Amino acid sequence: MSKTATYPTDLKFEDLVTEYKERLYWHIRRMVVSHDDADDVLQNTFIKVYKNLDGFNGESQIYTWLYRIATNESITFINKRNRRASVGSEELQSAIVNNLASDPYFNGDEAQAKLHQALDTLPAKQKQVFVMKYFDELQYNEISEILGTSEGALKASYHHAVKKITDFVTSH
Question: Which family does it belong to (predicted)?
């Protein structure tokens, strides 16, 4: 099944999970950073998909519908985590990224760790757009549908994100 396929009525929920769980996991993981948190958010995403599958009307692509749910669940998780912690969201996210090296599920090199640190410096919207465009390789029209933002605004956000990441990487 391709990214652009709509949801066939004869596809089972289990098939949907099998087809999209890995891509959604990595999308979520880039937003929440921690493997365990990403697993929790992915599970919540598929619970929400299961509960709302009958309501999927095919007006959007199944792929973008799933990403929208995963993105919203990630944002909800991050906001709840920030409220539970008595520190600011930037401070908490920075601590999480700094602990990335001790994460047994992170097998990236120093450059990848630096990229994650750079991502941590971005405002939430720029980070979302960068992750979807750079890592998930979504087109602007797909990101627009997921985030409900114009393509022009997304292109500007992506441009600013790239500039900030470049500045961070070259100065650290």
Answer: Belongs to the sigma-70 factor family. ECF subfamily.
